[in-house]
User: Fold these one by one.
Assistant:
Number 1:
Amino acid sequence: MTLQEKDSQYLWHPYTQHKTAQTPIVISRGEGALLWDENGKEYIDAIASWWVNPFGHSNKFIADAIYKQLTTLEHVLFGGFTHEPAIKVAEKLLEILPKNQQKIFFSDNGSTAVEVAIKVALQYFFNKNEKRTTIIAFENAFHGDTFAAMAASGISFYTQAFQGMFIDVVRIPVPVKGQEQESFEALENVIKSHNCAGFIFEPLVQGAAGMVMYEPEALAKLIRICKENNVLTIADEVMTGFGKTGKTFAMDYVSEEPHMICLSKALTGGTIPMAITTFTSAVFEAFYDDDINKALFHGHTFTGNPTGCAAALASIGLLQTPEMQANIKRINASHLLFQKKIENHPKVITARTLGVIFAVEIKSDTTESYYGSMRTKLYNFFIEKGVVLRPVGNIVYILPPYVMTEEQLQKVYATIEEAIEMV
Ligand SMILES: *Cc1c(COP(=O)(O)O)cnc(C)c1O
């Protein structure tokens, strides 16, 4: 049997209808922004393998840090024990996160980082004997696939089988240009009519919705409204964190600091699954008590895994190098030029850029669903051309590893231009 045949016999892939899906491509090697399949065909990874890999595939610097940690202390339970790598990650993050963040909680992936934040928001008020059980979230949000994260997510086919089984979530419009006032008013109304514990949002860019962007001033105002009403604010930076928006965190653009921040994806440079939720002291203090019942009874077996911590430290180190910061600026400048070039194309609705994130919406005669026919046509075209891009309906976005060369980036642009002509 070939690897593809064995795959189809044994494996169940994410977000995949196996009856109609194409056979997955077997990737055998990666380096920098490139991937190679088992037949030696080369692909440019223009979406950093689902946004996790800023520093390139098979990065030697991170690999060395992981190897060193694996052969010193690979893992130790985090209940009753601690270790230097976890402390170093905490110190490093507290240095670069918004200044009000004071406590670091480890988990394993973006969904659990969100799950922790939502549970903390709900238990915060439980511990204070206040009845607040509603979570506020944006329309078309994506916060992950575990239950509270799904409840907060607004993309219906991800969650439709579970409607009616969720915690109480009320949705407000995203404050995209022209819709800010509607968003502010909706938030005020929800807070008036519900007992709200928390507001969770993807700051400035809604990734899975198709890189939907909105302004920092609008987000600052929403956070202010929450703070005036004692509603906890949760910035889900799982996608936006670690340089994607051009600053270390999307919240660095926003004048108001949130109560909690969720991190994962690029945290370990795409090597080891790990996530972190961070908190203000005020949030932590609601759990700090002589009464054991007020503790946060949440944990995962691999919490604070030292190898993951070593990978995170190496990754943050790479992010802070002048070379990497220059790469981010170069990619942003190229994106802006490309945006200018194609935004007036008759087949383009809009194009937008923030940091290394670029998205273009292509005109379509039919209403395009997330996994609709245009999406399939585009996806197949890109794969044939050796470029990994996963369009969201009629939206094509680029989120390259920061190490992508200018030549590779120009090839990605040229392929997108060709695709626009083709559809
Ligand atoms: C990907 C993502 C998640 C979920 O992370 P997983 O590691 O896939 O569980 C949560 N929030 C945002 C904003 C994301 O982009």
Number 2:
Amino acid sequence: MAHALKIPPGGKAASRVAARYPFFATPYSLELAAECPGFAKQVFPDPRELSDAGSMPADPFGETGLAAAAVPGLKQRYPDRVLVMAAAGCAMRCRHCTRKGMLGTAQTMSSPESIAKAVAWIEKHPRVRDVLVSGGDPLVLPDAAVARLHDAFASLRQIESVRICTRAPCTLPMRITPALVRILARSKKTWVNTHFNCAGELTPDAVRACGMLVDAGIPVSCQTVLLKGVNDTPAKMLALLRALQRARVRPYYVFLCDPVAGVSHLRVPADKARALEKTVAESIGGLALPRFVADIPGARRKTPVSELESVCGPRAF
Ligand SMILES: *Cc1c(COP(=O)(O)O)cnc(C)c1O
């Protein structure tokens, strides 16, 4: 990423936003943004990011505090799975990022010592059977570090799946190299969970990257974030889901934007999400149908939008 751009186009206004929420994009994502307006909304700073600061928390899940609870860089919210924060950064700073106010501050693990601590912790917790390797984006790490993480968790007998959570197939598809695929495919436990938000992101390069993983026997699924003007109409959402299915990527979740500062201009209200889910469910087969959910702190699972009111009460999500 030597050629990545760190100063946003768009003059003073954009630079002011970037001073608070950094801008970072690869040449590939800038080219894609030029062709795909939905993607451009995810790349370029918007002055409205600065207008909701007082009303929204920067760290809705209390993650900065939680890290101290177990092992640095390890997060457990559900009994049978843990999330490992492998890297602090990503190949792009998404404007809708849940961690946009604190990216780079969380504890991460990729050194042999910190991985060993995580492994020891998991071995003491035999109910854990699923490890999410996340971040940031673990695929900003070099192959050797990815291999170290992958092998450490995949080699544990109690672990039945290792999920690599990465937006690289979308934002940096050339990162999916034959050498990387060989590393990920050497256990039969590996799944890749990626992040596409609109059909225009499924470029030939992106489709090729996903295809390389699937051809190697690695199931690829997609977590989408519901974003105003990007995928919040039936036509746009269906175009995305069909493009994912053509690329052999399984739509998994559609998330409501978390209530974090700097994202209000992209948020879609829960009512609209429910209506969209219904229309989509009536228009496409189950294999291409994701679950529409919200990530509510303290809930025992990702909460279906249809149950949001019973979980959170009538407050607007
Ligand atoms: C979302 C999440 C998971 C995975 O949840 P699934 O519903 O299994 O995809 C695991 N750990 C943490 C900390 C999470 O936030």
